[in-house]
Amino acid sequence: MPQTRETAVYTHGHHESVLRSHTWRTAANSAAYLLGSLEPHMRVLDIGCGPGTITADLAALVPDGRVTGADRAPGILEQARATAEGRGLANVDFEVADVHALGHPDGTFDVVHAHQVLQHVGDPVGALREMARVTRPGGLIAVRDADYAAMTWYPAVPGLDDWLDLYRRVARANGGEPDAGRKLRSWALAAGLSDITATSGTWTYATAEERAWWSGLWADRTLASAYAGRAVRGGHATPEELRAVSGAWREWGRREDGWFAVLHGEILCRKPA
């Protein structure tokens, strides 16, 4: 059984500007690398499920199976339950859980999935070991995480460089690893996994609507979310500096030639039978 529990602080929190992003996520735009491996009867654990949009999509894809959404924050699970109920899904449930210490017997699930989770945990290798523990022999561990240092954009609005530097400092001070995407395969090997398929995927924001949405949520998040509070309390930025970064996001969002790409690392690991 696991010996550690979460030590990192979740950088973003659940401010409206954060959920604006999280509720946009679907299995198609955030777990495409996994979908071809799903079968109707499978039992799936979705770790870090947040508001449950990906969880609900997974449940619809395993109609003869069951999906359990897990998150450390009890409050967000109420929104996740409402999401599933609104879609009329009867094969999904939710629980409060720590990825380092899951409350399930060995080999419970066919698939254990985590999207944008390992970048925020204190012991990603231990988390992968625990995910593997509750996966049945022959089952799959599926993980996808962004890589902040690999994010790229145009035009080169100077304040966005300040944003990236600030975010990475705050995330690391909270015990996380913002450049997790590139490290997933290495962490999986350290966790004792061997049958690993490593891929990558992107989110791209280029249309006027996409630029307004992406720049707006980050402009707001920089001023009003838990991340903003932690940036100031931790001495990483002053309120004035946060306002400047927020303004840079607004400026980028107004540019007709604006383009932003988010790179994600992905791993699909088969547990030995």
Structural account:
The protein is an alpha/beta fold and 273 residues long. Helix 9 runs antiparallel to helix 11. Strands 1, 2, 3, 4, 5, 6, 7 and 8 form an eight-stranded mixed β-sheet that branches. The chain has helices at 16-22, 27-30, 32-35, 53-61, 74-86, 124-133, 158-173, 184-190, 208-224, 226-233, 239-254; strands at residues 43-47, 66-71, 92-96, 109-115, 135-146, 152-154, 195-205, 259-270. The longest helix has 17 residues, at 208-224. It is built from eleven helices and eight strands.
Short description:
The chain is an alpha/beta fold and 273 residues long. It is 41% helix and 22% strand.
Topology of this structure?
Elements: H1 16-22, H2 27-30, H3 32-35, E1 43-47, H4 53-61, E2 66-71, H5 74-86, E3 92-96, E4 109-115, H6 124-133, E5 135-146, E6 152-154, H7 158-173, H8 184-190, E7 195-205, H9 208-224, H10 226-233, H11 239-254, E8 259-270
Parallel strand pairs: 1-2, 1-4, 2-3, 4-5
Antiparallel strand pairs: 5-8, 6-8, 7-8
Which characteristics define this entry?
alpha/beta; 8-stranded mixed β-sheet; 11 helices; 8 strands
